[in-house]
Design a protein that fits this description.
By secondary structure, the chain is mostly helical. It has three domains: 49 residues, no CATH class; 80 residues; 155 residues, Intergrase catalytic core (hpI Integrase, Chain A, Orthogonal Bundle), CATH 1.10.443. Helix content is 53%, strand content 7%. It has a three-stranded antiparallel sheet with strand order 1-2-3, with helices on one face. Strands 4-5-6 form a three-stranded antiparallel sheet.
């Protein structure tokens, strides 16, 4: 529809998602109003909301929306910031969103591979970038989401702790981390789930500890049983709070006892080195806990409920049969002779007859 005049200025009318849009312009010339109408119709044709210029949206706009989303939804903001700040922003930080094309992303992946990054690490960064664009589309900041392909990665997880390795490591850990490690080793909970525990989550009378929906990665509330060792851990923490006169709600405090325990990568790595057990990850405790529960005869469905795994496939990915399990199976096979098939009656008769013939000769 052509621009039409109302008073001294022109109005334009166009359709967006089947609905008519009327917009007052500041133009007094028909030609200027016609150009604006053409621009609006062009925006609609490209899927852009009227009046919004996607060309102005930058990577930094998308990154901020991404971090805000994690903060608002009580997700792991630390990981979100790390993906953005450590690798994505240095490459894309000066770019407009429309400049981050498939070719630009491929170039980024190539540089990360050349830098020695693992496929799994790069995939986490690409997933963050993909989420940024998805949120940008939802927030009407961009009109399209570039295709982002993830790399192939080996999903079998191999890191485990044997009992003696864990005990040695726990001795080497700073005092304020020993209980955290114990909970991880027995229940298989994620580090952020453990460090986020408050006293409201702990029920020592009924010997259980709960996680609320908002505190879990799977967004599913769950309950963990407390054995005597875990009861001792939480009782020790209570005594520590009382000794410090702490009013903090968090069960596990930092080294100074003044705030919630946060990341402790350096302390963990140093303890692993002193313990002489190699480069173990805290997440290896989670794999170990699942394996130990299955070894002890706990049904897999129950183990999944305790550890917070949604699908059965995790047992395949965690490669629960360790090298020690295979060696144990080999010893059992070695000690068991294959059973001899009992002879049939007809065969026994033939054997007796053959023995008599041999005696006669």
């Amino acid at each position: 529809m052509a621009p039409f005049k109302e008073g001294k200025t022109y109005w334009i009318k166009y359709y967006e998602n089947g609905k008519p849009r009327y917009e007052a312009t500041r133009f007094t010339k028909y030609s200027d109003a016609k150009k604006l109408l053409s621009r609006r119709e062009g925006n609609v044709a490209k899927g852009e909301p009227s009046g919004i210029s996607y060309a102005k949206t930058t990577f930094n706009h998308l990154a901020q929306d991404y971090i805000n989303y994690y903060r608002i939804n009580n997700r792991n903001v630390g990981n979100a910031k790390r993906y953005v700040e450590k690798h994505l922003r240095p490459v894309f930080g000066r770019m407009k969103a429309i400049q981050i094309t498939g070719a630009a992303i491929t170039k980024y992946v190539k540089s990360r591979l050349e830098a020695g990054a693992e496929n799994a690490t790069i995939n986490r960064e690409l997933s963050a970038l993909k989420r940024m664009f998805s949120l940008g589309k939802e927030n009407d900041r961009i009109g399209r989401v570039p295709h982002i392909s993830l790399l192939n990665e080996n999903n079998v997880r191999e890191g485990f702790f044997e009992d003696n390795e864990f005990l040695v490591l726990r001795e080497e850990l700073p005092e304020h981390l020993k209980g955290v490690a114990t909970v991880g080793y027995i229940l298989g909970w994620r580090r952020s789930e453990i460090t986020g525990l408050t006293w409201g989550n702990v029920d020592l009378i009924n010997r259980i500890v709960r996680l609320e929906t908002k505190d879990t990665k799977s967004r599913m509330a769950r309950t963990g049983p407390l054995n005597s060792e875990l009861v001792e851990v939480f009782e020790k923490q209570k005594k520590l709070h009382k000794k410090l006169g702490s009013k903090e709600p968090w069960v596990f405090l930092n080294s100074s006892g003044t705030d919630k325990l946060k990341r402790f990568d350096k302390a963990w790595e140093s303890a692993c080195k002193r313990a002489g057990i190699g480069n173990k990850l805290f997440h290896d405790l989670r794999r170990t806990a699942v394996r130990n529960m299955v070894r002890k005869g706990i049904p897999e469905i129950v183990a999944m409920k305790i550890s917070g795994h949604k699908t059965r496939s995790v047992f395949d990915r965690y490669n629960i049969v360790s090298e020690g399990d295979l060696q144990d199976a080999a010893r059992k096979l070695e000690s068991r002779a294959f059973p001899v098939r009992p002879a049939r009656e007809s065969e026994r008769v033939e054997e007796v007859a053959e023995e008599k013939t041999n005696l006669l000769h």
